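Read as chain and fold; for instance:
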Amino acid sequence: MKAKSAARRARRKPSAVSSPVLSGGMARALGVRLTSLGRRRVRAELRVKPMHMNRTGRVNGGALMAFADVLGAAGTVANLPPGYRTATLESKTNFFAAGTGPVLKAVSVPLHIGRTTMVWQTTIRNQDGRAVAIVTQTQIVIPGEAAGKNKPEGERRKAEGERAGIGAKRR
């Protein structure tokens, strides 16, 4: 009886959470499933499929790195000010064991949350709990269009002037 209930629990999927990062092509292509998302911790799982495997039947290192990148990006996005965006500046991976299925689980935590950069560390584990890899990545924090920083100089000045009431038509 205990074996059956344990197998049943292992098949259940935790309720997924949403992040704008999941709408990107890589997260969808990999099949990343966020299981919890907060400003200080991100959890996810990756159901291993044949497309994730290398020629030796283990999960490809690039797939592991991309899995971790999705988590670090999701954590950063959860901490961004309105109108800002992010991109990965740097990523470093230490591999400890071969990645095996059927499911890999990962937890990402911030090491630094700053005004211009954030650093996240993601630990990926096999289903038996063995650490497969630890990925540390630095994300840049970029003001978006709403912040006016990425507009050409003339457009930015015009927008700033309009907000200040300069150059508005008078009637």
Summary: Residues 40 and 128 are 25 Å apart (CA to CA). The chain has a mean pLDDT of 84. Residues 2-145 form a domain with the Thiol Ester Dehydrase; Chain A fold (CATH 3.10.129.10).
